[in-house]
Amino acid sequence: MVARTLYDKLWDSHLVNENDDGSSLLYIDRHVLHEVTSPQAFEGLRIAGRAPWRLDTNIATPDHNISTERSERVAGVAGIPDEISRIQVQTLDDNCDHFGIKEFKMNEMGQGIVHVMGPELGATMPGMTVVCGDSHTATHGALACLAHGIGTSEVEHVLATQCLVSTKMKNMRVNVEGTVGLGVTPKDVVLAIIGKIGTAGGSGHAIEFSGSVFRDMSIEGRMTVCNMAIEAGARVGMVAVDEKTISYCKGREFIPKGDLWLQAVSYWQTLVSDDDAFFDIEVELHADDIIPQVTWGTSPEMVAPVTALVPRPEDQVNKELRKGVERALDYMGLEGGTPIASISVDRVFIGSCTNSRIEDMREAAHVAKGRQVAGSIKQVLIVPGSQMVKAQAEAEGLDKIFIAAGMEWREPGCSMCLAMNADKLGDGEHCASTSNRNFEGRQGKGGRTHLMSPAMAAAAAVAGHIVDVRLFLSESSSTGVEL
């Protein structure tokens, strides 16, 4: 038998038909819907007189457009201040009610960012094909799924047929060995990977993340890494099944029980790449080389260790690179040669489908505990990724730590990850952000985004500028450290 990668196995088990033009038809196990990309798809079904092929494979929740302000959330959909956002959320409710699709509505337990609530409900399971009208669907690959984003027309196609026209990608393996050091998180690991291979490095490939660093990582951490596979140019990121995967899934709402659970586990344990499977590209990193990372420019590949200097245009090896750095520095309002750890920030955002899980909340609270937000900081938003994360954080008292530090504890939603709701940056404002993209205007027109881990973002909130979080985590920090 030919040795196969994890991606090969997932592809083969869902292949319906191979077409003469090189495309294929794949069966889709789970379809997650939200308010932004679903309205036109549902309208298409109505016009064509069709109904969803399998209702039980679809789940929905609002996340992008909803307010995270408690005072606005208590009023329900009617309390959403922006009219267009309000219409989109109401339309999702109406469509799910009409077609009979299970929706976790705005203030219901289970609601959250699609890529947080799906796995935590057990709606995402190992071995599945998972799609959603959102590019960061790769997140679900942390559970050994073939998961990726789709466009609006494809949302309609999956609803109507439970299948998707697709073209098989090549295989890429990113191997990171060793043990990460103090203050180094999954966000730092994936930013270091993107810094090495670039935002086009994984183009046309499905990335499997392997090595001791990922084996040691929690499932939540693996989700952070797979979430940002898209920022490395890949459509898919995944991690093979191990005992952590099975333990994470057990007992969740959508997970099978009894004999079906035993059968599922038996199958899931096969979801690993064969020892001699072929990968078209192999990338190697070592944990010892990774320290806390920060983006300084307008692309995730414009990243550097927190101890580094902002790159100088004149130091770039070719004209195109020099022009790219010049443009990024101009937009970011930075000078080449500036210490990254001296860049002031105006706002801090801890949340998004990348870093809003309970592990992320704990990481930020560990830094914030007993400290205060710097007087120069205008706002610090702490936004849990789901109602379940919010409830757990509050049960652990994390919300009280954030509030005591002068931070805002919000309701679940996408929030300041993107300028699609009330949480936005002002023109020229710098933000320490745990989201996944630092493009021009991503968090608001003229907003300047610096991507980093939750711990690094919390440290920036306390210091008033980007700072090496290891100062807060060392033994000396307990007696005070000069920031």
Summarize the structure.
This protein has 483 residues and is an alpha/beta fold. The protein has helices at 6-14, 39-48, 70-73, 83-99, 114-121, 152-161, 186-197, 212-216, 219-227, 243-249, 258-268, 319-332, 358-368, 387-395, 398-404, 454-463, 470-473; strands at 15-18, 24-27, 30-33, 58-60, 102-103, 129-132, 146-149, 163-166, 170-177, 205-210, 236-238, 281-286, 293-295, 303-305, 347-350, 379-382, 408-409, 430-433, 448-451.
List the defining traits of the structure above:
disordered C terminus; 19 strands; 2 domains; 16% strand; 33% helix; globular; Aconitase, domain 3
Could you tell me the number of beta strands? 19
Q: By helix and strand content, what is the structural category?
A: alpha/beta
CATH class of the largest domain: Alpha Beta
Mean pLDDT: 96
Rg over CA atoms, rounded to whole Å, is 22 Å
Most strands sheet: 5 strands, parallel
Distance between the termini: 59 Å
Query: What is the count of DSSP helices, taking H or I runs of 4+ residues?
Result: 17
**How would you name the CATH homologous superfamily of the largest domain?**
Aconitase, domain 3
Please give the order of strands in the largest beta sheet.
5-4-3-6-7
Spans of at least 5 consecutive residues with low confidence: 475-483
Rough outline: globular
CATH level 3 topology of the largest domain: Aconitase, domain 3
| Structural domain count | 2
Helix percentage range: 25-40%
Q: What percentage of amino acids are in beta strands?
A: 15-25%
Query: In the CATH hierarchy, what is the architecture of the largest domain at level 2?
Result: 2-Layer Sandwich
